[in-house]
From TrEMBL:
<dbReference type="InterPro" id="IPR003953">
    <property type="entry name" value="FAD-dep_OxRdtase_2_FAD-bd"/>
</dbReference>
<keyword id="KW-0274">FAD</keyword>
<dbReference type="InterPro" id="IPR036188">
    <property type="entry name" value="FAD/NAD-bd_sf"/>
</dbReference>
<dbReference type="GO" id="GO:0008202">
    <property type="term" value="P:steroid metabolic process"/>
</dbReference>
<keyword id="KW-0285">Flavoprotein</keyword>
<feature type="domain" description="FMN-binding">
    <location>
        <begin position="380"/>
        <end position="454"/>
    </location>
</feature>
<dbReference type="GO" id="GO:0016020">
    <property type="term" value="C:membrane"/>
</dbReference>
<keyword id="KW-0560">Oxidoreductase</keyword>
<dbReference type="InterPro" id="IPR007329">
    <property type="entry name" value="FMN-bd"/>
</dbReference>
<dbReference type="GO" id="GO:0010181">
    <property type="term" value="F:FMN binding"/>
</dbReference>
<dbReference type="Pfam" id="PF00890">
    <property type="entry name" value="FAD_binding_2"/>
</dbReference>
<dbReference type="GO" id="GO:0033765">
    <property type="term" value="F:steroid dehydrogenase activity, acting on the CH-CH group of donors"/>
</dbReference>
<protein>
    <recommendedName>
        <fullName>Urocanate reductase</fullName>
        <ecNumber>1.3.99.33</ecNumber>
    </recommendedName>
</protein>
<dbReference type="InterPro" id="IPR050315">
    <property type="entry name" value="FAD-oxidoreductase_2"/>
</dbReference>
<dbReference type="InterPro" id="IPR027477">
    <property type="entry name" value="Succ_DH/fumarate_Rdtase_cat_sf"/>
</dbReference>
<dbReference type="Pfam" id="PF04205">
    <property type="entry name" value="FMN_bind"/>
</dbReference>
Length: 454
């Protein structure tokens, strides 16, 4: 497997193929939510789990043990507020991580740790543009004009709170000799003047809703009123920023004066930002054998944990650490569970041998009409993507995505828009959807495959 740019899911595809290679030994269930662990009331041994699938509660008994790898709680609003101190964080990863693994571990007496720690990514110190609740943020890593010129970032009081040019490390910025994620605010806004607006417009804008989300006003006080921050605070901040830009020294946060220009006359602009969360680190504590511990620091028999659910990073984060925890702790947990003596309960044969990952790769039942051809690509985030292309008279008449495993939000936008663009242009040489480059590439490759092999 060779990487094809960032975020190409190369590791996921390798692991996915390993499962396909062992499909006779590994079951995969989609849309199967863990409800509870099954625990012996006397010995406290974990004997299985209760699963909700297609509206039916199924008790699945384990032969050797249960390994929890259910991810974090970044989409659980109550947990985010209680543990991370934020009213809202916008997810960059899965929109389905809601802390289920934490809750079912607590039910059997698990001890929690590192619940306050999380990672971010994105613009400035880990931000994205304001995103509706329940949707995933669009990850943008570079945007010319947002941290160089007559522009700065404000908190709820209308004042700056960090050096806008400082590179973030998974959302952490260097503050008082420590790498920290800045305290979240309700109304983080980027503020800039007309000259900066013109500069931004003269450069590529990587966010297609940027202009429609701008707030514009003739004066700073009017702008403050429109965005709901202190007019006095914002006016004082603009005056101080102008003075520091003219003096050639940012006494507040040490921003390079070469990146600072005094604000000119209006109009002035603001755009709301959101604090991102890549994933949380908290969850049930595990020991060196990946055994999940109870509140007395004793292993809960036959229960293990891996991945970011109860990650080992307490306050900071090491780049690549989450993938490492999945691989290393997954291996440790699997080996430890496999070494256990078998439990006396056995699962019903009724539910053995179900592998929906394999079922999702079947294309034999896709019907083809006149001038219709199938094409496929493995370049998508979720694996194989299949299209049905109607092609005649050297023209692409229709493109249908008939099989995919892409993300439900931004990936679906690509599934809707890229086929339309290909038909309109009669070519696969069309622009990708921002934030869904892998899905866009997969569709284009699949269409090309269908035409070349028709």
């Amino acid at each position: 497997m060779v990487h094809n740019g960032w975020f190409d899911a190369a590791l996921w595809k390798i692991l996915r193929q390993k499962i396909l290679d062992r499909k006779d030994k590994i079951d995969v269930w989609y849309n199967a939510r863990g409800l509870h662990l099954i625990q012996d009331p006397i010995s406290k041994t974990i004997k299985g789990a209760q699963i909700l699938k297609t509206g039916q509660k199924i008790n699945v008994f384990a032969k050797k043990g249960v390994i929890l790898t259910t991810g974090g709680f970044e989409n659980n609003k109550e947990m985010v507020q209680n543990y991370l101190g934020a009213s809202k964080l916008s997810p960059l990863g899965s929109i389905y991580n809601k802390g289920d693994g934490i809750k079912i571990a607590q039910e059997v007496g698990a001890k929690l740790w590192h619940m306050h720690n999380y990672e971010s990514l994105g613009l400035l110190h880990g931000l994205s543009f304001d995103t509706p609740e329940g949707e995933r943020s669009e990850l943008i890593l570079s945007f010319p004009g947002l941290n160089n010129g007559s522009v700065f970032m404000i908190a709820d009081d209308g004042k700056r709170y960090f050096n806008e040019t400082e590179s973030n490390r998974h959302g952490h910025i260097f503050s008082h000799s420590m790498w920290r994620i800045p305290r979240t605010n309700e109304k983080p806004y980027i503020i800039f003047d007309q000259k900066q607006y013109e500069y931004i417009q003269d450069n590529p804008i990587p966010y297609d809703q940027f202009n429609e989300k701008l707030v514009k006003a003739d004066t700073i006080s009017e702008l403050a009123e429109k965005i709901g921050v202190s007019a006095t605070g914002l006016e004082e901040q603009v005056a101080l920023f102008n003075q520091e830009a003219n003096d050639g020294r940012d006494v507040q946060f040490g921003r390079d004066s070469k990146t600072m220009k005094a604000f000119s006359e209006g109009p002035y602009y603001a755009i709301k930002m959101m604090y991102n969360v890549l994933n949380t680190q908290g969850g049930p504590q595990r020991n060196v054998k990946a055994e999940i511990l109870n509140v007395n620091d004793e292993p809960i028999p036959h229960l293990y944990g891996a991945g970011e659910l109860g990650g080992i990073c307490a306050n900071q984060y090491q780049g690549g650490g989450n993938l490492a925890e999945c691989l290393i702790w997954g291996k440790i947990a699997g080996e430890q569970a496999a070494a256990n003596e078998s439990l006396d309960e056995t699962a019903s044969d009724k539910y053995n041998g179900i592998n929906e990952l394999v079922d999702g790769n079947k294309v034999d039942d896709i019907e083809l009409g006149k001038d219709q051809y199938l094409g496929s690509s493995e370049a998508g985030i979720g694996g194989k993507l299949v299209v049905r292309v109607t092609y005649s008279d050297n023209a692409i008449k229709k493109v249908e995505v008939v099989q995919d495993h892409e993300s439900e939000d931004v990936g679906k936008r690509a599934l809707e828009l890229i086929p339309q663009r290909i038909v309109e242009k009669n070519s696969v040489d069309v622009d990708a959807i921002s934030g869904a480059s892998a899905t866009s590439r997969a569709i284009k490759e699949a269409v090309k495959d269908a035409i070349e092999n028709r």
